[in-house]
Amino acid sequence: AKSLKRERIFQDRQNPMEMMTNDMVLARYRFPKTAIIDLLKLVAPQIVRATQRNNAIPPIIQLLTALRFYATGSFFYVDGDVHGISRSSVSRVMQDVSTILGKLAVDTIKFPSTANEQDEVKQGFYEMSKFPRVIGAIDCTHIQIKTPKENEERFVNRKNVHSINCQVVCDHKMMIRSTVVKWPGSTHDAFVLAQSNIATTLAAGVAGDGWLLGDSGYPLRSWLLTPFLNPGTGPERRFNKAQKRCRCTIERVFGVLKSRFRCLDKTGGGLQFVPEKCVKVILSCFYLHNLAKQMNLPDDDEDRIQQVLLDEFDDEVNVNGVPSGTDVRNAVLITYFS
């Protein structure tokens, strides 16, 4: 009996989830037990860590440590929850797991490239809004970080906080399909786009007759349609309304992302790492967002999501349209909204 009891205590220390209900696990780590076990199988071979004391931190503890940090943004909560891990170990584990999940994000976040994939996305957006041929909604979001030691002024954004400006394209299901996470907070959304692979790809016509939808902070292009700045006619207002309905998906992605993973939201206090490490954490959360969407996990508390969306508001205007963009937008206006 003593042996069984001792074994049970050892197991619990190996895997704290054994002591929790599924609802407790979901609330604490943002994923159900089954998903965490599946994720563990994926990452465990890479996060096995030997220590000099010959009692390595078990992979499940490492994964739960990272998930708890993503969920709260706080080392305080992580320290209190996970058995016997020092603050320095938490930080090291966080970076190890984020390196692995960040690489998974890069490997798995893919823009719809085949005709079938693009047709599914177009159909999804059309059913949502009656706006034709949309292959993605694009926007940027700022992730607050601690004051960097190098090039500090480049990271100060329009709201006067230090951040990384992250470009994201999502589909109609709120899956992240393209992302750029590297530019300091002072960088304008339009510049981030201009330097990105997706701009080069779409400008070259790879997406056929499809286009992205963006807000007025982006330049009007034949492959990126923005709203009419001063809609004066019924068709222009209908165009803007349908265009906004599609763009709500990317805004909603940011709301869901920052409420599920509080480390990305300013209420989590900002990411307290150097920018290069922040990038890995951000990409990890993007990967986990897609995982949650694939599993149809419920979104977080609606009030919290709406609060994030209020903070996301940005009224930047870009008037650098090109004639081909104006021609395409006018053609859509006449064909579908007049």
Which key features would you list for this structure?
single chain; 338 residues; 2 domains; 5-stranded mixed sheet; 5 strands; hydrolase activity; HARBI1_animal
SSE topology:
Layout: H1 2-14, H2 22-29, H3 33-47, H4 59-72, H5 75-81, H6 87-108, H7 115-129, E1 134-144, E2 163-170, E3 176-184, H8 189-194, H9 197-203, E4 211-213, E5 224-225, H10 234-260, H11 275-294, H12 302-312, H13 323-337
Parallel strand pairs: 1-4, 4-5
Antiparallel strand pairs: 1-2, 2-3
Describe this structure in words.
This is Putative nuclease HARBI1. Its main location: cytoplasm. It holds the Pfam family DDE_Tnp_4. By secondary structure, this protein is α/β, with parallel strands linked by helices. It has two domains: 106 residues; 227 residues, no CATH class. Helices cover 53% and strands 10% of the residues. Helix 6 crosses helix 11 and helix 10 crosses helix 13. The longest helix is centred in the C-terminal third of the chain and has 27 residues. The chain starts with a helix and ends with a helix.
